[in-house]
Design a protein that fits this description.
43% of the residues lie in helices and 6% in strands. The chain is mainly alpha-helical and 127 residues long. The termini are far apart.
Length: 127
């Protein structure tokens, strides 16, 4: 096993408990699914295209991207510490992924994920 897989397996139980407790606290009917980390190449080629937060995006934000009125699921990518490389972004875009900006500030990975989810929940009237 690679180190990131070992780290994930050590922390998975704790993270799933946090997901359950957060879903209960917010009275959500569905508990989010925690998947094992995958590399960007596997992700953009194996999953349905979705949104990818990119700090170098200057034209698109979640306000300007045409989002469907209703969704059952949405794939959202938040880059690793240091961000995605331009090659990774171009690969994702070539597979149909839409880049967007979370604003002028560079956010930590953990914060960027929460901000992006909160903005999407707000867009869909669920927050």
């Amino acid at each position: 096993l690679q180190q990131h897989q070992v780290d994930f397996l050590k922390k998975r139980g704790r993270w799933e408990k946090i997901l359950r407790e957060a879903a209960e606290q917010s009275r959500r009917g569905m508990i989010p699914i925690l998947h094992e980390p995958v590399n960007i190449l596997d992700c953009v080629t194996s999953y349905n295209p979705g949104l990818i937060a990119w700090e170098d995006e200057t034209n698109n934000s979640l306000k300007t991207i045409p989002l469907p009125d209703m969704i059952k699921s949405l794939n959202l990518l938040i880059g690793p510490k240091g961000g995605f490389s331009k090659e990774e972004i171009h690969l994702a875009q070539s597979k149909g992924w839409q880049t967007f900006s979370l604003g002028k500030r560079i956010l930590r990975v953990e914060t960027a994920a929460i901000v992006a989810c909160a903005l999407l929940l707000h867009h869909y009237g669920d927050i």
